[in-house]
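hey can u run this one w/ alpha-D-glucopyranose bound, need the structure tokens asap thx
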Amino acid sequence: MRVAVISSEAVPYSKTGGLGDVAGALPKALKQIGVDSFLVTPCYWQTKGEYLWHTAVDDLWVTWRGQAVQAKAFYSEANGSPTFLIDYPPLFHRDSIYGYTEDYERFAFFNHAALALIQRLGTAPDIVHLNDWHCGFAAVELASRRRHEPYWQGTRTVFSIHNMAYQGGFGMGQLPALGFTSTFARNAFNFNGYASAMKAGLEVSDTLSTVSKRYAHEIQTAEFGHDLDWLTRQRSSRLIGITNGVDYDEWNPETDKELPVHFSKSDLSGKADCKRALLEQFSLPIELDRPIFASVTRLTAQKGVELIRQGAGDILAAGGFFIALGSGEKDSEKFLQALRDYAPSRVGVYVGYNEALAHLIEAGADMFLMPSKFEPCGLNQMYSLRYGTVPIVRAVGGLDDTVQNWDAVTQTGNGFKFAPFSSDKLLEKIYEARFAYEDKKTWAKIQQNGMAVDNSWENAAKNYVELYKWTLGNS
Ligand code: ADP
Ligand code: GLC
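ok here u go:
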């Protein structure tokens, strides 16, 4: 089976969040189980030159705004699978990866270029695996083209939803300029008079998946559907949840190159050294018995920042350190900086994006907070489990599927989990965790339970192969 994975970001070429982790790791995992897979992603200004091994195509002609424009594609295997990076500086060499009013235009171009490249490579893929709204354009183009172009006739599309909150909306009047003139395309994009790339992808792709079982159900409800729940319900017989994996080549305390000392499930002693290094990094007192509660996150409403803000005060009252790495809403960034200024010997804050620090926090912290309002999957709670850092999460989406609440009677569970979106409930769990931490034997058991969990990509990749097969047999 030949599979092309298309994504707007992929590690190590680019990353703003979990989509990058997933799109970098899935093609590698597919390849490892024998699938002929390759990745297509943009080459950004942020993509390091060392990852661009050589030029694969230097005259990639893309029909754009009625004209043929010339793009390029680099080749790399830096993520462990064949990768083609579409290079078109006017649209992709920018200060940030997303956040421009014309993002819809940038990714429409990327989609056209990705399909042009695939065709140029020769053998048509059986499956084109599309990710999030940035790939909704390719879903429509492919569905249209396979009606009359023999090359695409055997190709089927799988569309993965990583986050329903971002839908790639723009004016219907822009569609012709992006190359979409048919009634079929207009209908696909049309969402109450606006164009939505997410809606188009959901409507015309052969099958749909999302990144946890629970989120697959949640997006069929008004609470989590972001106004598209009617469509996910309509297509529910072709929608499945596959929980993301963890790339243990990147996130493994036994080998992690960002850590001063390594540790494992059978020998946790190095974790204390990582805790010391983390406290030093933030110029906090080296008090190893005081628990560190940590957070690494985009500072947006999705992540429950309002609960994190309230919880931070509770953590200080409960005698813990609080360490946060994040960027996003200015108001929350300011709050964190103010909290650090208020309690400089107990709070460490880094506003910004810092990959190395994210690893050190996973290793050196004792508890990890994720009180999300919604969470399609979430990766940090799974990283935390592997690093013996106990997650405190809200029971939504992938957090509910991957964290089991600690039960002192049966000695089962690997974290602390609460359901209502309320600071009181988070507070209860903060105190429960604080209490459990005091008993070294109990704490070690919770850590061991978490470290024993296998969230490797291999399982997820096998589930994707099943989905691909099902898609080929049922479309
Ligand atoms: P989301 O994709 O919604 O942001 P995930 O939990 O799936 O949430 O993935 C977030 C990823 O981004 C993780 O790999 C996490 O370590 C990383 N991350 C988030 N914020 C930062 C930051 N400020 N610095 C470094 N890494 C970050
Ligand atoms: C999105 C979601 C996150 C998920 C990630 C990768 O960014 O917010 O929950 O883990 O995609 O699928």
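The longest strand covers residues 54-64. anyway lmk if its weird
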